[in-house]
Amino acid sequence: MRKIFVLVAAAAALTAAACNTVSGVGRDASAAGNAVTGAAEDAKN
Fold first, then answer.
1. What is the per-residue pLDDT for 3?
2. How confident is the model at residue 10 (pLDDT cuts 50, 70, 90)?
3. How does DSSP classify residue 45?
4. Model pTM above 0.90
5. Which of helix, strand or coil describes residue 21?
6. Where is the signal peptide (predicted)?
7. In this prediction, what percent of the chain has a pLDDT beyond 90?
8. Torsional sign, CA 25, 27, 30, 36
9. What are phi and psi of 25, to 5 degrees?
10. Host H or E run for residue 29
């Protein structure tokens, strides 16, 4: 029973870490997109 609890706790920790990583990648991609949009607007003007 204790082994199952440890495995479930480890899986939950890994899942939480993966969500944070994906969230960080999303923010980075969004920032890069904003930079490209800003550069395109500057080039247009």
1. 84
2. confident
3. -
4. no
5. helix
6. 1-18
7. 0
8. negative
9. -65, -40
10. helix 2-44
Rg, Å, the chain Cα set: 20
The Cα–Cα gap between 6 and 13 comes to 11
Greatest CA span in the chain, whole angstroms? 67
Structure-block tokens of residue 44: 């247009």
User: Two tokens at 12?
Assistant: 């939950």
What is the number of other CB atoms lying within 10 angstroms of the CB of residue 44? 6
Query: Is the model's pLDDT at 1 over the cut of 80?
Result: no
Across 1-45, the runs of DSSP E, i.e. the strands, are none
